[in-house]
Amino acid sequence: MTKVSTLVTGIGELVTLDPGQSIATGTSPDVARLGPLHDVAMVVEDGVIAWIGPAAQAPAADTRLDLDGRAVIPGFVDSHTHLVFAGDRSGEFAARMAGTAYDGGGIASTVAATRAATDEQLRALIARRVAEARAQGTTTLEIKSGYGLTVADEVRALRLAREVTPHTTFLGAHVVPREYASDRTAYVDLVTGPMLAAVTEVTADGADGEASRPAYLDVFCEPHSPHAFTADEARAILLAGRAAGLGLRVHGNQLGPGPGVLLACELGAASVDHCTYLSDADVDALAATGTVATLLPGVEFSTRMPYPDARRLLDAGVRVALASDCNPGTCYSSSMPFVVALAVRELRITPAEALYAATAGSGASLGLDVRVAVGEPAALAVLDAPSYLHLAYRPGVPIATALEVTARHTGQKPVPEIEGP
Q1: What pTM does this model have?
Q2: Which residue has the higher pLDDT, 415 or 144?
Q3: Parallel/antiparallel/unpaired status of strands 48-54 and 36-45
């Protein structure tokens, strides 16, 4: 099959995430790490970057896309989302704004609505949310289960998520469902036994099992919520997931100090998410182990809870990621530009640090090496602005979108797809 190439020219600024790029003397380390280039062009060939260089030296290509001075950045990697759900919890949000505290109890209403929805209804809702994220510059998504909490419903959620991304996470240990409230041990046994076996099963031909098999297992380890899991329960669940060959992720230290971060670091989790309440021991463990601290400032915005101390983490050498935590209860937003703006304003990190965390940092938590370089997928976003600085400078303005490189005369689909690397 003949490859089709597109010359993308008129790039005012290209963020490569390659610190080896030639940059101006005196550039601060956070900006240098972005590897920004100016007045450049690139060639994309069948979804892969084939050439990057000065605009004046651009080679010929089959088609041409002129960005007229706009900035191009790596597409956002949203490494923490809960997109497989039905129902509405806007009333709960209003109650929180009136002073009601969040403790995780509202998840039960989403579980009921999701169980009642058909596959086609859920598929349509997921597609709408993925399109919404892509329209704001996200090109790679992680999606969790966790609103089914039965064997069949968790398998279904993961199967539907796998239709749009390879980065899926089994979150059967989201909360203890109502029907097990009086017998938590039985639910932990279900999660670590039949439920885990069902979501990781690979049939003889590989067809059914691979359709729902996740890459990760996650657990909501939060002693400050009566609905979430204790340290001992979380440990049992994580060890079972690791034994089944899954990578580990943890919801930890969201509502107060707790064991989640240390447990994640001890067991080699790829990421521990929220990290709002941290001890010195938590920070030291994150720095020493390399477990990514994924911060979700949209949650604090939507719950009026304290923001995590990102500056403390970065200064300690912790690898930090930013993600949306798009979910119906505590942050119904898929906007990574909003997350970046919040991180700059409320977490007190620089625009360069925020962009790095929302691309390279979140990518690292999924095992991805996110860079804009020859041979890499063209998972890119374009800004209707001359610089990445406008992501925080113009909060709430829809300036970011996934870059669609389309060979219109061939009838080919746009690239890249939302699945990402």
Answers
A1: 0.94
A2: 144
A3: antiparallel
